[in-house]
Design goal:
about 350 residues, alpha/beta, six-stranded parallel β-sheet, three-stranded parallel β-sheet, about 45% helix
Length: about 350
């Protein structure tokens, strides 16, 4: 019987504990020569190792944690030469990874053996920096005061502009991107092995966004629908003024370019604003179901409201905070006696 403190230490391990410990002991014995050499190299070069992608391959686990750390180092040390990034999950976007590879050293799924050696050496040698939680990283002041560390280069800008011309965007025309949270996107993530609970009750009504885009199109904007693994295309009645990029042309490169290039992003409870935040570009966060301590630089947030079913009364912000996000969790709504009230087109506009 293993001592309780050992069982508690490894409580999150998703396999029999004894097998997990044995595997790591054997791995360390086999790799110990390489670990020792790597530890010496890290020590001599005064390297520090920062972990991202901990526990999930969602893009926020990479970007939201990495960007503030790089901004902080650039503002103080003016260089990223001492830093090594270990991405413990597979890349969620190849273009994002390419841009960060230009400015710092990252070991991910493409270098699993090297990543594992550095993991051992930095963990045992105390060169591993504190692991930062995703929500903790969102509250980092660097999102407001730091300068972006990555950029889109001239060749990428040229390719992106060629795409815009090919779909009918005029040279001087402003574009608006929008995306809404959908069940199909989260089903796609789960099929890839990402651990999550979709919580479809948080999803906005996309028909509201179609009407918002109709009005913005009348004002002269070119509208692009963003998203991934969407289950349906834009209905025919809206197809004249919404280019369904998500269904017709999506690529990881264009995801990044379009969100960089657009005059505005309207995000209906999605994680896509992260692609704007890394460039210090603002987003309209509509139908958001969380009350964050901090939003990204220049962002506007329009919360879904909470209604008490007993008396049909809207909850105050204080009452929503007191529920600790449980109002948007289908497991607790019945007990709380509440329902979500989605944003209207007028509120978003």
């Amino acid at each position: 019987m293993l001592p309780k403190f050992v069982r508690d230490k490894f409580a999150g391990v998703q396999q029999p504990l004894g097998r997990w410990i044995l595997r790591h002991i054997l791995e360390f014995i086999v790799l110990s020569p390489a670990i020792l050499v790597t530890w010496i190299w890290l020590k001599l070069r005064r390297k520090e190792v920062f972990f991202v992608g901990v526990g999930t391959s969602a893009i926020t686990a990479f970007l939201q944690v990495l960007e503030p750390e790089l901004r902080r180092r650039m503002s103080v040390e003016k260089t990223l030469a001492r830093l090594i990034i270990l991405n413990l999950s597979k890349d969620a976007n190849s273009q994002i990874r390419l841009m960060y590879d230009r400015v710092t050293t990252i070991y991910g799924d493409e270098a699993r053996f090297r990543r594992r050696i550095v993991w051992w050496a930095s963990t045992l040698g105390q060169m591993k920096l504190k692991v930062v939680e995703i929500l903790e990283a969102q509250n980092d002041p660097q999102w407001h005061f730091g300068k972006p560390v990555i950029s889109i280069n001239s060749e990428e800008l040229r390719r992106g502009e060629e795409f815009l011309r090919s779909i009918g965007v005029k040279p001087d025309q402003k574009i608006v991107c929008y995306a809404t949270r959908t069940a199909s996107y989260y089903d796609g993530l789960k099929s890839e092995g990402v651990k999550l609970k979709a919580q479809t009750i948080r999803n906005p009504d996309e028909r509201v966004y179609f009407e918002v885009m109709r009005e913005l199109s009348r004002r002269g904007y070119f509208i692009l629908r963003m998203g991934k693994d969407l289950s349906r295309e834009v209905p025919e009645e809206y197809a004249d003024f919404i280019y369904d990029y998500a269904s017709k042309s999506r690529s990881e490169f264009l995801d990044v370019f379009l969100l960089f290039r657009s005059s505005c992003l309207i995000s209906g409870a999605t994680g896509i604003p992260m692609f704007r935040a890394i460039f210090n570009l603002p987003t309209v966060n509509s139908d958001t179901y969380r009350i964050h301590e901090n939003w990204f630089k220049g962002d506007i947030a329009i919360c879904q409201r909470v209604k008490f079913l007993a008396d049909n009364r809207l909850a105050t912000i204080s009452e929503m905070v007191a529920m600790n996000d449980q109002f948007s969790d289908e497991r607790y709504q019945a007990r709380l006696g509440v329902a979500m009230v989605k944003n209207t087109a007028a509120e978003i506009l």
